[in-house]
Amino acid sequence: MNDAVVPTHALEPTLSSLYRDHRSWLEGWLRRRLGNAWDAADLSQDTFLRVLASAPPIAQMQEPRAYLVTVGKRLLVNFHQRRSLEQAYLNALASLPPACVPSPEQRWLLLETLQALDELLGGLPAPVRRAFLWSQLEGLGYREIAERLQVSERTVKRYMAQAYEHCLLVDE
């Protein structure tokens, strides 16, 4: 019988053991939802990076797969939103006359900016986001926004205040 004493820290789960034990399972789970191995591998890596950055101590995780699925689902939603935004942008570009089409570098910068803006406004309710975007990108006044949203101008003012406050708090 081996009476060797195993140090306590060797029994504690670590990120590397979590990664080793669950990475292939998580990638398979993501691959089934995405239909492609490359995006699944990327999202799997992003999931573990999120766990590293913000998770409770790994030793305290009761159900690591449930935690990984929760983080993975959030990343999947972000992934699909980003793809939808990219597709909308590409559709808008396709309708432009050839002389107005931005260069590939400009397209990339614009898409990155759109994604950052989408992420910044992500926590806002849809009407608040729309009001803010119509005001900032289309230059609409509160009355025009109120008509489009079928709400009062007072509500639009409240929406705008909420959006500005959200943007200021996200920066902190």
From TrEMBL:
Cleavable signal peptide: none
Q: Which residues form the RNA polymerase sigma factor 70 region 4 type domain?
A: 115-167
UniProt keyword annotations, A-Z: Sigma factor, Transcription, Transcription regulation
- GO MF assignments: DNA binding; sigma factor activity
**Annotated Gene3D superfamilies:** 1.10.1740.10, Winged helix-like DNA-binding domain superfamily/Winged helix DNA-binding domain (1.10.10.10)
Listed InterPro entries: RNA_pol_sigma-70-like, RNA_pol_sigma-70_dom, RNA_pol_sigma70_r2, RNA_pol_sigma70_r4_t2, RNA_pol_sigma_r2, RNA_pol_sigma_r3/r4-like, WH-like_DNA-bd_sf
- Domain RNA polymerase sigma-70 region, which positions? 18-84
GO BP annotations of the record are:
DNA-templated transcription initiation
Q: Does the keyword Glycosyltransferase apply?
A: no
Q: Does the keyword Transcription apply?
A: yes
Entry's NCBIfam families?
PRK09651.1 (NF007232), PRK12528.1 (NF009180), sigma70-ECF (TIGR02937)
Q: What is this protein's record name?
A: RNA polymerase sigma factor
Could you tell me which species this protein originates from? Pseudomonas trivialis
